Amino acid sequence: MSEQPLEDNPEAHVDLTAPDLLDAKEWEHWLKMPAWTIKEFACLMHSINPDEAERTTGIFSRIRRTGNNNVSLTFQILERAKAIRQIKNMMMPIKFINWALSCGFRIPIEMESIVDETREPSPTKELEDRPDPKRAILCIM
Question: Which of 6, 17, 46, 81 could serve as 86's disulfide partner, Cβ 3.0–4.6 Å?
Answer without folding.
Answer: 81
